[in-house]
Specification:
About 50% of the residues lie in helices and about 10% in strands. The chain is of the alpha/beta class and about 700 residues long. Helix 11 crosses helix 26, helix 13 packs across helix 14 and helix 20 crosses helix 25. One of its GO terms (molecular function) is NAD+ binding.
């Protein structure tokens, strides 16, 4: 095994190569190797300057995730960077791939930085609930100014090399694919006096712009929605202007330690690891994915066209089938518009859009166009008979070994698969709208779905840049089954006296981007209405029913698309206002049932909403619909707006304590023993003093 940091000298320039695959993470061995190499450079008479670069495909991509949650071992990164900066010989950072977090902080501690044109830099620590803790908040403002530092550090966004050059983060951008050559050339210029290096810690940051900091505090408080690390990061950046460098470094470290001890840091770290662990499924270990070189989509409405664009953006040719030429033209129009939006947002070049439309995207009105397609995704109306008819037709046309996927939000994939002679090739893909944007893909595994088909679903999700979660078959799978349950809890509170507008406001304050009633208006109230009617025949007679949403739908008020739902919408508006007529409907429903309304505090609203979510999630895990609690967390984080800094409902339950959650459910069961009956798994774990996290660790 090679040393993670190697030292050599080329024509009077020391080459310090970080070689810790796959991403040259800053492990303890790398930190120690860097410290040793810089000390060696200082005393090496054969070297006039040094270059730090990353072997392989990237510079230093950040901290070593294997050390997360463990005590940090010496040498500490701030001390290593301080040694680099203090070196009497100029040190150049040669950047390629990504220089993120501690990797960028190492580069900022060097006396100059050159980057390949393809490189990206960033300080994404706020996405993990912390802030740059090795000088990033003190050096970046001195190099790039307060505005750039506030932008990059509070957002965690990555910056391309060209923008980094404009901001002053790097000193030069070089075309080509050889970072070492670029670094050596710049190091020689420094050694020969043809270019000047700087110690960033010695740069005068200038006077503090009080208005700028006040503006960023106001903007960040709004955009962070309860997350504390971006706000604390502003305090750290401000220290670069209020304090001498060494005192600012001490203040940064103090704030960093506070965030490391926070629940939010724990929640964000959990989310980080859960999104990586969710791909560990038994089928991926048992089988290899099938090859997918072409995609077919049946149905060109909003969902089908979005799925087609997601595949096209991933480089897959797509054939979209609609029932007639008029529908085909509508679908082509939707796809073209979505691609144009991608160009407008800078996600796609005009040349690539034109290539997709002329070469990669085709349409047809006959299923025979899908005869040689590797994977077909049906995205027609959410009706069992319609979908079964599609699959019967596909079964007679698709080639042997083709995967047949149904995009369904609720329907029984086993029943759909039974309409074919090849149930082993049938799988459910629950895309979320808009399908080309939303990150979550529930991969629904039917009873007879082959292991390699499941593995293919996860491989396709990765290619589409989506987070795949394995789900079993039940009404609503993981996400919509949970949604149906916690939405009932919200409806019960409305019928008992809470306002839908108060509930939405309380849950936005909790961290959701929207409350459940605003979300319903956005999705369309008619969709849930159809689901309620579909389930009516099988509804348990013990279940409490609330008719408020039905009364709203009976008036033809389906949310944003009709201008009315729970809220009133001005033409073209995305944000609604409370509707007195809806409040009158609610009052009439209460009166008809003899319910005397009572008040709810925001805390009660959140407690009931979360208790319903956690309890149903425990049932989903116990039934095997979700493999592990972390699968539930990822579903809610990636698809349902659950505040990421809380880690997901199962992580949140563990933080509250399962005994606390169980006590709340038992208290509520006095009101409604059927709805609030505690899940057996939750009872067992609470009685044993265990956590949901303990189930994530099982094989």
């Amino acid at each position: 095994m090679t040393d993670p940091v190697r030292y050599s000298v080329q024509d009077g320039i020391a080459v310090i190569a970080v070689d810790n695959p796959p991403v040259n993470a800053l492990s303890q061995a790398v930190r120690a190797g860097l410290a040793e190499a810089v000390a060696r450079l200082s005393g090496d008479d054969q070297a006039r300057a040094g270059v730090i670069y990353g072997a392989g495909r990237t510079f230093i991509a950040g901290a070593d995730i294997r050390e997360f949650g463990k005590p940090m071992a010496e040498p500490f990164l701030p001390d290593v960077i301080a040694a680099i900066e203090a070196c009497e010989k100029p040190v150049v950072a040669a950047l390629h791939g990504t220089a993120l977090g501690g990797g960028l902080e190492v580069a900022l501690g060097c006396h100059a930085r050159v980057a390949l044109a393809s490189a990206k830099v960033g300080l994404p620590e706020v996405t993990l609930g912390i802030l740059p803790g090795a000088g990033g908040t003190q050096r970046l403002p001195r190099i790039a100014g307060a505005a750039a530092a506030l932008d990059l550090i509070t957002s965690g966004r990555h910056v391309a090399a060209v923008e980094a050059l404009k901001l002053g983060i790097v000193d030069a951008v070089v075309d080509g694919d050889d970072p070492l050559a670029a670094g050596l050339a710049h190091a020689r210029r420094l050694a020969d006096g043809e270019a000047t290096g700087r110690r960033s810690g010695e740069i005068d940051p200038g006077a503090k712009d009080e208005a700028l900091f006040a503006d960023w505090r106001a903007k960040t408080k709004k955009s962070a929605r309860g997350q504390i690390s971006p706000m604390v990061a502003i305090d750290a950046i401000e220290a670069a202007y209020d304090l001498p460098f060494n005192e600012g470094m001490a203040r940064e470290r103090e704030l960093f330690k506070e965030l490391m001890a926070s629940d939010q840091r724990a929640g964000l770290i959990h989310a980080f690891f859960a999104e990586r662990a969710v791909a560990k499924i038994p089928e991926a270990e048992a089988a290899s994915p099938r090859e997918v070189a072409s995609i077919g989509v049946i149905g060109g409405g909003t969902m089908g066209s979005g799925i087609a664009v997601a595949a096209l953006n991933a480089g897959l040719p797509v054939t979209l089938v609609e029932r007639d030429e008029a529908s085909v033209e509508r679908a082509r129009g939707i796809v073209s518009k979505l691609l144009d939006d991608g160009v407008r947002r800078g996600k796609l070049s005009e040349a690539r859009r034109d290539q997709i439309l002329s070469r990669d995207f085709s349409t047809a009105t006959d299923y025979s166009a899908l005869a040689e397609t590797d994977l077909v995704i049906e995205a027609v109306f959410e009706d069992m008979d319609v979908k079964k008819d599609v699959f019967r037709r596909l079964d007679g046309i698709a080639k042997a070994g083709a995967i047949l996927a149904t995009n369904t939000s609720y329907l029984d994939v086993n029943e759909i698969a039974a309409a074919t002679s090849r149930p082993q090739d049938v799988i459910g893909f629950h895309f979320f709208s808009p399908a080309h944007v939303m990150r979550l893909l529930e991969v629904v595994v039917a009873d007879k779905t082959a292991a390699d088909v499941v593995a293919t679903g996860f491989a396709l999700a990765k290619k589409l840049r989506k987070v795949a979660v394995r789900a079993g078959v039940c009404d609503g799978f993981i996400g919509n089954r949970l949604l149906n349950t916690y939405r009932k809890a919200a409806d019960y509170m409305v019928e008992d006296g809470a306002s839908p507008y108060q509930i939405d406001a309380a849950l936005v304050a909790f961290g959701f981007p929207m409350g459940p009633f605003a979300v319903s208006d956005l999705a369309g109230l008619d969709i849930a209405w159809a689901g309620r009617k579909r389930r009516a025949a099988t509804r348990d007679p013990r279940e409490r029913t609330v008719g408020i949403a039905d009364r709203i739908c009976e008036r033809g008020w389906f949310g944003q698309k009709t201008g009315r739902g729970y809220y009133l919408y001005e033409p073209g508006a995305r944000r609604g206002s409370p509707d007195p007529e809806v409040e009158a409907i609610i009052a009439a429903e209460r009166e008809a049932k003899g319910i005397v309304p009572r008040s709810f505090t925001d805390e009660e609203i959140v407690s009931r909403y979360m208790a319903a979510m956690i309890n149903e999630a425990a049932k989903i895990v116990e039934e095997g619909i979700a493999l592990r609690p972390l699968d539930v967390d990822v579903t809610m984080l990636a698809g349902y707006g659950f505040p990421r800094w809380r880690g997901g409902p199962m992580q949140y339950a563990d933080r509250l304590g399962l005994d606390t959650v169980l006590a709340e459910l038992r208290r509520l069961s006095a009101e409604d023993g059927f709805f609030w009956e505690p899940a057996p798994l939750l009872v067992r774990l609470a009685d044993e003093g265990q956590t949901f996290a303990s189930l994530n660790e099982r094989d």
